[in-house]
Amino acid sequence: MAQQRSAAASAPSAQNIHLRYGVFVHGYHALSADADYVLQPWGYGVETHLYTVGLASWFLTLNLMSSTQGRFNGDDVAPISFNNSGFAHGEEETTHIDFDLSGPHVTVLLPVEKQREPLPEPELKQSIDMLSFLVELTHRLSLKHDCTLSRPIFDGVRLSYLEVHGPSQTTIPKDHGSYFKSDALKCEFTGRQIGGFSLSTHFKAAQSSPHQGAVWFVHDQQGGFIPARVEFAHYKLGQILVVLQSAPKISTVVRPQTH
C-alpha cells in the first residue's frame, strides 16, 4: 500500500521542453534566448530568458526574464498571468499583468511610464501576452495543422495586432548555426502597433505600419511541433532573425500529489 502511495505521489504529469536560440540583428549574433515550457491538455506554462552576448554586451546590457501561464479553451488560450522583469534601456524594469474575462490588468509597472496615447478598449479587452500567443500558435498547429490566427498583443504598455496565416510546406534554412536542417511548416505573419504610442515619439508612422515576418516549425519526435526559426522586421532595428541552435532538451516534470 505504501508503495502504491509512493508511486502515485511521484507520477509524471508532463514534460518540460528546453530550447536555446541565437538572436541575430543584421546578421550579427547580439542576443541569446532560453525558453522552457510545459504543455498539458488543460493548460501551459512558459519561462524565457533573453540576454546580450559577445561584443554587443560592451555597448548595451539586456537581461530579461519573462513568464506566462494559462489555460487551453479548445483551440484558444486564456492567459492567467504574465510577468517580465530584468534590466533593459539602462534601468531595472518590472511588469506584471493579470488576465480575466474583462481583459488584462496591469498590477505592476516599473519604472512608471511616460505619457502615452490611450489604448483602444475593444482590442485591449481581447488581448493576450506575446508568450501566450506563441503557445496558441503552436497548439493550433499541433491540433489542426493550421496557423491561421489573429490577436491583439499587450505587453503592459503597448498594444499590437498580429495576423498569422499558413502553413506552407518548406525546408528550414541551414544558416546561422541552425540545429534543424529538415522539412518544416512555415507560418507567415504581419504585425503592427495599434495603441500605447508615446506622445513624444517620432516613429508612430513606422510603428503603426505593417511589418512582415515568418516562423518555421519542425516536428520533433519527443517535443512535437517546435518553433525553430523566426524572422521579422523591426521598425527601428531592421531585420531580426531567431534561430534554434541546439537540440531540444526534454525532461519529465513530476508533480507531487497530496491526499
Give a written overview of the molecule.
It contains 5 helices and 14 strands. It has 259 residues and is mainly β. The protein has one domain. It is globular and about 50 Å long. The N terminus is likely disordered. It comes from Bombella intestini. Pfam families: DUF3108.
Order of secondary-structure elements: HEEEHEEEEHHEEEHEEEE
How confident overall, as mean pLDDT? Answer: 90
Number of strands: 14
Major beta sheet, specifics? 14 strands, antiparallel
How many DSSP H or I helices?
5
For the record, the count of structural domains works out to 1
Assign an overall shape.
globular
Low-confidence stretches: 1-11
Structural class: mainly beta
Terminal residue distance: 14 Å
Pfam families: DUF3108 (PF11306)
InterPro entries: DUF3108
Protein name: DUF3108 domain-containing protein
Task: Spell out the blueprint of helices and strands.
Blueprint: H1 2-9, E1 12-25, E2 28-39, E3 43-52, H2 56-59, E4 63-73, E5 76-88, E6 91-100, E7 103-110, H3 121-125, H4 130-144, E8 149-154, E9 159-171, E10 183-195, H5 204-208, E11 211-220, E12 224-234, E13 238-244, E14 249-254
Organism: Bombella intestini
Protein name: DUF3108 domain-containing protein
Pfam family, one: DUF3108
Short description:
The protein has 259 residues and is mainly β. Helix content is 14%, strand content 56%.
